[in-house]
Amino acid sequence: MLKVVEGVLASNGITIARAYCLESSSFKISKKQINEHSEEISRFQDAIKQAKLEIDQIKERTEMRLGTEKASIFSAQLLILEDPEFIGEVTDKIKSENVNAEYAANVIADKLVSLFEAIENDYMRERATDIRDVTDRLIAILLHVELPNLDLITDEVIIVAEDLTPSVTAQLDKQYIKGFVTNIGGRTSHTAIMARSMGIPAVVGTKNIMEKVKNNDLLIVDGEEGYVIINPTEEKIKEYHEKKKQFELKSEELKKLINTKTVTADGHSIELSANIGTPEEVQNVLEHGAEGIGLYRTEFLYMNRDQLPNEEEQFAAYKRVLEEMKNKPVVIRTLDIGGDKELPYLHFPKEMNPFLGMRAIRYCLENKTVFRTQLRALLRASKFGNLKIMFPMIATLEELREAKQLLQDERDVLLAEGVLLAESIKIGMMIETPASVAMADHFAKEVDFFSIGTNDLIQYTMAADRMNENISYLYQPFNPAILRSISRVIEAAHNEGIRVGMCGEMAGDNLAIPVLLALGLDEFSMSPSSILPARLQLTKLSREMTNLKKELLHLQTAADVHDYLKDHKLLSC
After folding, report:
1. How far is it, in rounded angstroms, from Cα 482 to Cα 466?
2. Which of 46, 82, 369, 516 is the most exposed place for a label (fewest CB within 10 A)?
3. Rounded distance, CA 523 to CA 521, Å?
4. Rounded distance between C-alpha atoms, residue 459 and residue 378, angstroms
5. Residues 6+ away with beta carbon under 8 Å from 279
């Protein structure tokens, strides 16, 4: 019987090779009382200098292998080592408790890692890996421990590990390392992003691969389906050699679509855009042929720091994205914090249910100085590209109107100061509350576009926290209540002549794409790696699927919808 381990698809592709089990460096960190804290602080400072030198070397090698954009991961790591809050907290702990540097650094690192792991957003949660990568290097230097060196590998292998940090991933040489599998991790980790850039098949989040595999076991990594086969039969190996050949042919075909428009089989133009969190991701967006950016999550500018970004910092980030996108549309969402994304330096009030509390537009309208700073930066950046501004978490017309008025006020001030701005900027709003769905016909008269945020819309419509495993069965993108809400929003928007996009996870789901197309969605915004497969899929579908829309909206359960799609062979499109 075949031994198969399932995981999360991190990087597409199929590979067959022997396992190389990478044992993680184990640090035995003891708490020691010291007599002279100045010497310990000096030792800590020397370790920071050494860690910077090592990360600089990794950054240089990464630039040579993968280019400047991917190497910017290590620029972010260097910032952690320069973070005055991190350095200050470690130093204070050494002084106040008279403890050794490695113990103090580990305690503070654990605190930071826990903070990021608690964030509901996958992208931010996996930034914890970067913090751990940096601090592990720092602690290894303090303890005189050698970190893994993959440069010593000279045979074709598949790396099997608990996790792979970005600095270890940067050492992967495609000549010998044909894939990797890990116990933990997700698609949005820097490690997964780098694997996709290098074209190395990867499956992560298997939970127990280290228990199942030993050195030299033969593995098949199926990056199409997200699983690993251990010691396959000759028949299975032959099957996967053919599957690998077909995958490579399909990949070459997809590359031909990079510079093409997305047009359905019946001639309708659809916009395929990308979701990003940082300016560093723009190059990846362009490499995958996106027609724009459908969601730039600006809250990431505010995280992993000890104070608010000022106007100049924000202006530089927005300007960079707009310029690099070369007049392609860029939808920038205003600050969406609160709920799962608290910033320690803003001292959010303790709330019984933060997802229903002071978050997103509610926070911004309550803290107008913070909001005005962002609006000024956005307006100043507008002349450098095709900017669209979007307000999140709108529930009432009053909120929308107040946000629009604040934007107009700042526009008037900047024009009076002689600042050059774009002549016109399209203004939109997120549809992610049941209230905004119910009032979509009125909201559509006051904005230039809608963007449906399905992640929040589903949990608010179903009254189910999607992070709560006990009720995870209620997180149902295909529930008829959700499909009816989406249909209602699109119909209301089209009646007023405005376009509707979707930037939630559902937009990149190949099962959902035929449904959303039938409902009339104009723009799909997704992770960059999903764009070309989605473009190919859409070219084979017709938008004028009137009967499909009618029948879907009369079904009673999510299972009914899934069965309908399966019966009509829409799951394989």
Report:
1. 15
2. 369
3. 6
4. 30
5. 317, 320, 321, 324
Distance separating alpha carbons of residues 337 and 520, to the nearest angstrom: 30
Judging by DSSP bridges, how do beta strands 227-230 and 3-6 pair with one another? Answer: antiparallel
Q: By the 8 A CB rule, do 161 and 206 touch?
A: no
Number of alpha carbons in the 13 Å side-chain half-sphere of residue 509? 16
Give the domain 264-567 fold. TIM Barrel (3.20.20)
Taking 60 as the threshold, does the pLDDT of residue 572 lie above it?
no
Q: 303 with 124: CB under 8 angstroms?
A: yes
C-alpha 289/C-alpha 105 separation (Å) is: 42
Q: Which two tokens stand for residue 174?
A: 């495609």
What CA–CA distance (Å, rounded) separates 249 from 552? 35
Tokens of 400: 């929308």
Q: Which residues are catalytic?
A: 190, 503
Cβ within 8 Å of residue 485, ≥6 positions away: 434, 437, 457, 461
| Whether the Cβ atoms of residue 377 and residue 402 lie closer than 8 Å to each other | no
Coil/strand/helix, residue 99: strand
Which two structure tokens, joined as six digits, stand for 214?
């030993």
Residue 266 tokens read as: 């019946």
Beta bridge partner(s), residue 15: 221
φ, ψ (nearest 5 deg) of residue 304: 60, 45
- The Cα 389–Cα 402 span in angstroms is 14
For residue 25, count other CB atoms closer than 10 A to its CB. 14
Largest Cα–Cα distance in the chain?
79
Q: Mind listing the pLDDT tens digit for each residue in 374-386? A: 999 999 999 999 9
Which fold, 3-24+148-232? Glucose Oxidase; domain 1 (3.50.30)
pLDDT at 108: 92
Residues 99, 91 contacting (CB under 8 angstroms): no
The class level of CATH for 37-143 reads: mainly alpha
Residue 116 to residue 342: CA distance in whole angstroms: 10
Name the residue ranges covered by the structural domains of the chain. Answer: 3-24+148-232, 37-143, 264-567
Instruction: Provide the whole-model pTM.
Output: 0.70
Of 22-26, 232-236, 389-393, least confident by mean pLDDT is: 22-26
- Looking at per-residue pLDDT, the higher value among 232 and 25 belongs to 232
